[in-house]
Amino acid sequence: MELSVDGGFRQWWLLLIRGILFILVGIYMIASPATSVVALGFLFGLMILLAGISELLHVSNSRSSGNRNWHLGLGILEVILGIVFMSHIATSVAILRILVGLWFIFRGIALFNLSRILGASWVNKLGGIVTVIFGLLILFDVVFGSMTIILFVAIGFIITGFFNVWLGYSLKPRT
Question: Where would you find the membrane-spanning parts of this chain (predicted)?
Answer without folding.
Answer: 12-31, 37-57, 69-89, 95-114, 126-143, 149-169
